Amino acid sequence: MAVATTPPITAERAAAARRRRGGKVSGGTVAIGIVAWVVGLLFFSPVLWMFLTGFKQESQASTDPPTFFFTPTLDQYRAIFDRDFAPYFINSATASIVSVVLVIILATPAAYALSIARVAKWRDGLFFFMSTRMMPAVASILPLYIIAKNIRMLDNIWFLSLVYTAMNLPIAVWMIRSFLIELPKEVLEAARVDGAKLFTEMRRVILPMIAPGLAATALICFIFAWNEFFFAVSLTATKAATVPVFLVGFITSEGLFWARLSAASTMAVLPVIIAGWIAQKWLVRGLSLGAVK
Amino acid sequence: MAVESEVWVGAAPRRRPEPKRLPTRERWVRRGPLLPALIFAIVLTQLPFLFTLYYSVRERNLLRPGSDRFVGLKNYGKVATDDLFRNAVFNTIKLTVSAVLLSMLLGVALAVVLDKKFLGRGIVRTLLITPFLVMPAAAALLWKTSIFNPVFGLLNWVLSLFGVSNVDWVNRFPMPSIVMVLTWQWTPFMMLIVLAGLQSQSPEILEAAKVDGATAWATFRRITLPHLRQFIELAVLLGSIFIVQTFDSIFMITQGGPGQATTNLPYFIYQKAFRAFDVGEAAAAGVIVVAATIIIATFALRVISGLFQEEA
Hints:
The structure holds two protein chains of two kinds. Chain A is mainly alpha-helical. Chain A is 76% helix and 0% strand. Chain A has 14 helices and no strands. By secondary structure, chain B is mainly alpha-helical. Helix content of chain B is 72%, strand content 2%. In chain B, a hairpin with a 7-residue loop joins strand 1 and strand 2.
């Protein structure tokens, strides 16, 4: 019976699918493709404009109508580095990289305890981490500022790195946990039966298996740390100021230093755009704290 | 919860005792890996908040050393009756609601488009997520200068092709300008989560609907939208949590102005703390914001928790 009835249905469905596909390639798909490209370019245009403007002379940067064709120059990039952009860039890199390393070191064992080892009240633990991310930064900024001032850590890049670590910890715990619960249980059990101790199990069995997940987590945390502005502008002044703080200097430049601003912004956004393009596949997972794959 | 008791239990596979009955030492061994992160998070996020609570009942100004005394709930009274604080609350709500709604509508539309096959889909997807990756402080400055500027801005140049004369966007429409930048920034976020939802639909059901002769719109409304609901909820709630905290674009584009037109809560507290150095009032405002956030976050957690139980 089953054999007799299935073929017609499958054939009918296949035919329906073929008909649909055949009909759409010509009209619908092309129209959708055009709409998608137009909207995509529209969304991208401010970034593209910034990139182009960074290679203009100041006189070409603010014109009416806008200048679309020009001879590219590296003058603005030179000017930025003359204005000591490098220390800001190094500070941003330090705070981001140090915080990412710390986050991974702290979050991996925690995620392990909250997923594979399942400590008592693991749910509460997970939600505790989440709640620290939901607390507005403005609620803790004053004490952080006063504490930093009292222990002479104000305007200190290491203190900022610690703040970023705390900021990214919940994202990392949730994300790494989402990778851990996907591990096949048999593998872990086999390791246990072989008498692997906790640390060995971590290092030899779990870490290699979640390495891509850890890389994705690191990239997501890097993006958030690099782009952070509120803590940076509140807790740093001159020595530890990061790239977004450097940009504050351009706030009042009414049509004066647009090309230079664009060059500086290009430098500022490039690391994260590259990291984000690489991590595209995992971006959703990171943004939804591991809830959406 | 049933699932929970079946899963991997650790060192004692047989006759697994309830977690409570484990020997104390064993419990601490299990908890060990969790502790560094837990302690770190408590020290850097919970302790400062306790300090905020403490400051909120004291009168203290960093500009006047020695001014530090207990004043009870006076700061809360001052903040609650402050017109500027109320203005900041309304601005925050306006800003968050409009930016979240707009970016969600655009996000759903773009996700539906990206769910179809067309030439260069990967590239378009990459172009579309880029605004979310751009450093918000840099994006804000670029919008303020190259796009919103009344004389040299791209926006007015485009509009001039349609006969609209020079508009001073940031000064005449401060709030819509900020909302526009935020929408540009957050649409990719919404789009990515909704797209993940679309792609997790079972193709068989959609195929069946087609075979049964359902129109594309009916299929979308009756099958796709209900399926997307929890993804949309998650994106809206997470998006709101982030957008409520908007600071960068306001600091860079309007500095809360003109007047107080775009001062939201984070910017209000920042001004109280770092311009007026009024620790007491800033702390009281902070505590009020946290209380409000806890209420909103409770709903958020319920939704996320729903997604999360399904997966367990």
